[in-house]
Fold this sequence. Notes:
Layout: H1 2-22, E1 39-43, H2 58-64, E2 68-72, H3 82-88, E3 94-99, H4 102-107, E4 113-119, E5 127-128, E6 134-140, E7 152-153, E8 157-161, H5 172-186
Parallel strand pairs: 1-2, 1-3, 3-4, 4-6, 5-7, 6-8
Amino acid sequence: MKSIGIDILAIVVFLTAMFIASCGKPPAAAPTTRPAAPTVALVGGLEESQLTNRSPSVHDVASAAGVQIVNFGTPNGYLADVGGYFAKNSTGPLIGIAHSMGCKTVCDTGVAWRKLILIDPAGTDPMTVPAGVDCLVIRCDTPTPFITPSKVFGTFREIHVPPSHNAAPHDWPTLTIIENEIKAAIAPPVEAQ
């Protein structure tokens, strides 16, 4: 009889221990991290930046889209060390918007762009869009004295707008195009059903 009592006691102790163990705190859930907000880099051309110096501007459109903005604009934004900046400053997905001579700068940075928007690329040096980057080239149809359109190589979409070189970054058709491109770049991916 004693042996049965000890066996029952051992079973009760074992079951009690199992019950207590099962009532402990559940394992901590893995911390959730929010993806970093996209960052728009604005890179102007020679002298005063046409991306930020007037209103409405590309800066205004990007701000309204709720993205972070890094302005390499005025003066002579095309001389900025855009690649060096992003190598030192971790950000979310990157969208590069450049005007005139700043277009070559963004193409040559080595930055992993999600999207590039090149507004009337200018200068005597050709540029190549980095492989695998969604790129839109906006060309101005109105000739501008002393502005040499750049040759652009690589894979990109090209559209034409009526305003001149320095007016395009302030013109509503151009700004609407840019706004739609930014929204498309920051939209969450749609899952196939």
